[in-house]
Amino acid sequence: MKNILLGALSSAVLLAGCSKDQLPQASFDLFQVETVTATAGDGTATVSWTAQAEKPRPLDYYVSWTPDDAQIEGGDATVEAGQHALTVEGLTNGCTYTFAVQARYAGGLSMKVTAFATPKSTRIAASNFKAMAGDGRVFLSWVAPETSLDYSYRLVVSSASDDDRTLTVDSGETSCLVEGLTNDRAYTFALTCVYAHGDSETLTAAATPGLIDPFVATPTSSADLASLRQFELCSFEYNPAYFVRGTVASVHWDFGDGGSSDEEIPLYAFAKTGAWTVTLTVTYEDQSTESATREITVSGLAWSTFPNAGYQKASQIAFTPDGQTLYTISQTDKKLIAVNAITGQTRWSYTTDAATYGAGPSVGTDGTVYFGTEDDGGSFYAVSSTGSLRWKKSLGAKVQAAPAVTSDGVVYALANDGRLYAFDAASGDERWSAVQSGVGGGVVVDADGTVYIGTSTGIWAYSADGQLKWSSKTAYAVTERGGSLALHDGALYAVLKASSKGCVAVSTSDGSELWHYETTNGDCYHPAVDGEGTVYFCEKNGYLYAVKRDGSLKWEDKSATSYIYSGFALDEAGTAYISQYVSPFSLLAFDASGNRSEYTAIGSQTMSPVTIGPDQRLYYGKNGEFGAIGLPHPAATSGWPMRGGNAQGSNSLK
User: Which backbone phi and psi does 400 adopt, to 5 degrees?
Assistant: First the structure.
């Protein structure tokens, strides 16, 4: 007891010496507030809280706010005891702030209770502003802002030879035909949304009348069509100033490479390089047609290696659903990195307080990325496709298992104390939670919404509303750090720690064991499953296995004895790829019979599963960088062909 009192006294002395930092004091009569919420506004945030019931009234409340950007200043304020809300103004839009509330008593400040908010501008601008030139006229189009506020558009038309003219466009319009222009004269068009409380950002577009194209093709990675790359999404839109015979009723696009679309504004990516003749056919209301063509040249892939990426330890590379952005987590740099998959350039990075060793990213249908970290509080993040924090939760224990995210907007996170959380993907609101035991190994979701978790003490199944469906009768020790589960055709596959050995398949209906293939004595990692139910996995000692659906060995490779933390990725031709941890540091390829070959040398050790991207390249992370190399075949479309089940790492069939 004396040691405990001494510790408390030491803490009090330290806190007294740092009083200018408003730190809480060690006392049993400093009652912290009950709950804190932070609601973001336009350059503002409103912080509200509730006091604990039947506790002494404090002298006042101390509120502080800290931005996640070191270049932006935070602040603090004192609030009267009778008030339980504060609106903070002058905040930076797009920056996430941590708001902390402490009750002040005569004896000092209580413990902090925190909440997060990211102010955003309500003066939302239009988007996708385009100018298409015709004969003496220019057709403008845009996408309206997503807002419930009243606004109008201000359109300024300017050129070097004419005075500016300003037009007012009603908010119900998303296009405008500007006539009476001079051919061969360059014009600039500036579009601004005008709100009662101020103007939005101004968008600009340029066009020269007389230079008439039948349609506009705009790459998603740049505005330069001359640099269009393989697998880069390109937006196609017909020019109403070109097709003037009547009202266009429908369109048909033939992209020249075998692809086509009947969408008015399709998104399309060319899978092969070369010059392609795109043909657009419009059908007018009188059923007459008119066609026009344009040649588009597609260049090869722009990059193969991304340097200065830290070390991707057990974290696979994951893609947005459109394949244009990839995410990777650097364990050494403690950050999530978003990279333009077409150009190889960094889009943004998001730094966390703790490392992530195992909990790879899972990507939602809107490009939001979800991941956990290994701080003691178990921080779990939802970061938007633009790099801003959408929400953050503390799970109470380290997060080493990759999350699962479903197409209907639910995120499942498994902490290292065996607690499973179901969150609303958009808001972060908790839908339900359940408690088991053991270190978290993996969480996956079946097509019917059933959720399966594996820990170091067993396997469990839950319904989508949180009801326990079954528990495994055997206390399987599922391997921690990452994606240790896979699903296919009524079977749940789990790789096991050395104490349990190997890989087990259990029935998804009742958890009964279908088979258990025992390996030597090393932890096993990252199962991948082909369309026939064969499961591929690696053992920490370097042995590799392919076990058939009935539990019999298809093939094994014991030619290496080094630690391998990697995981397989399977292509549609039945080839299995994996990376080596030790010299000669190669990407290995195994055919359907298990014949091994070196696909390419990568030069240094790797500890992460490989991914086959939407661009038909094999992505691998290693010590200091990550890279990609082309494959003869795309990823398999059946089974569970890579860690996370797909290129998004969603860990979900739903």
Answer: -110, -10
Cβ-based neighbour number of residue 196 at 10 Å: 8
For residue 288, the enclosing domain spans: 215-298
648 belongs to a structural domain: no
> Could you tell me the sign of the dihedral formed by the alpha carbons of 593, 598, 604, 610, in that order?
negative
Q: Which residues of 490-528 are buried (b: 16+ CB within 10 A; e: fewer)?
A: ebbbbbbbbebbbbbbbebeebeebebbebeebbbbbbb
Contact 218, 235 (CB under 8 A): yes
Cis peptide before 307 (omega within 30 of 0): no
DSSP secondary structure code for residue 532 in this structure: T
Q: Is residue 46 part of a domain?
A: yes
Distance CA 461, CA 468 (A): 6
Pairing between strand 430-435 and 440-445? unpaired
Is residue 53 within 8 Å of residue 78, measured between CB atoms?
no
pLDDT of residue 584: 85
> Distances in Å between the alpha carbon of 325 and those of 222, 282, 328, 372, 594?
14, 33, 10, 20, 33
Cα–Cα distance between 215 and 280 in angstroms, integer? 8
Tens of pLDDT along 382-416? Answer: 999 999 999 999 999 999 999 999 999 999 999 99
Whether residues 512 and 607 share a domain: the answer is: yes
pTM: 0.73
Q: Is 473 left (phi over 0), alpha (psi -120 to 50) or beta?
A: alpha
Task: Say how far apart CA 256 and CA 262 lie, in whole Å.
Answer: 14
Tokens of 266: 């399709």
